[in-house]
Design goal:
Largest sheet: 4 strands, antiparallel
Shape: rod-shaped
CATH superfamily of the largest domain: Macroglobulin (MG2) domain
CATH class of the largest domain: Mainly Beta
Distance between the termini: 135 Å
Radius of gyration: 47 Å
Strand content: 25-35%
Helix content: 10-25%
Number of helices: 2
Number of domains: 3
CATH topology of the largest domain: Immunoglobulin-like
Length: 193
């Protein structure tokens, strides 16, 4: 059966040359229904190449997605650089020395005990504490070291009262960073009558 030809048994359908359908048709005439397919550049390219091109919207979406991924990767790299740039070597304490007065202290004295922490010159944070022979402990103390600084000086102010002759010892203990030099002590005399 061809397009436009009447169905068998359909008596209401017009016959060739009949004006009841509104058109005349003959054996050499092609009858189309609808507007048909209008050729576009994409359709012509697809027809000539034999494969369909991805829609432009998909290409635009892929280009946008790749742009966002590259931007995110650059941002992550920048943040890692900021995080890691100051983390070459960490500060390391190579030696500890404590100094107390050589002369015997007299009644109601306040003694300035000095500790010197020698470092490798790197920046970082040192955690330490003073332990006194009378049982008192300073608790954890912190010192921030700038790059290039080799000697860090810390102080303990120790007030002593009472009568008698005694010998006191001040100990500087390194808590962090871990080091082979972990503590040093020095003693001084006290006399009050």
């Amino acid at each position: 059966m061809t397009q436009g030809s009447p169905r068998p048994g359909d008596e209401s359908a017009g016959r060739p040359g009949d004006s009841s359908t509104g058109r005349s048709s003959g054996p050499d005439e092609l009858v189309r229904f609808g507007p048909g397919v209008q050729p576009t550049d994409e359709l012509i390219e697809t027809w000539r190449s034999g494969r369909a091109q991805p829609p432009r919207r998909r290409r635009r979406l892929m280009r946008s997605l790749i742009g966002w991924l590259v931007t995110a990767a650059l941002l992550v790299c920048f943040l890692l650089w900021l995080l890691l740039r100051g983390q070459g070597e960490e500060v390391e304490v190579t030696a500890i020395k404590v100094q107390t007065p050589e002369q015997v202290q007299t009644c109601d004295a306040t003694v300035d005990v000095t500790g010197v922490l020698t470092t490798n010159g790197e920046a970082g944070r040192i955690t330490y504490r003073w332990v006194r022979s009378d049982g008192h402990n300073s608790g954890l103390l912190h010192e921030t070291v700038e790059a290039g600084k080799r000697d860090v000086t810390v102080h303990l102010s120790w007030a002593i009262k009472g009568t008698g002759d005694r010998r006191f010892t001040a100990t500087l203990e390194l808590v962090a960073p871990e080091s082979t030099a972990d503590k040093a002590s020095s003693a001084f005399g006290y006399s009050c009558h």
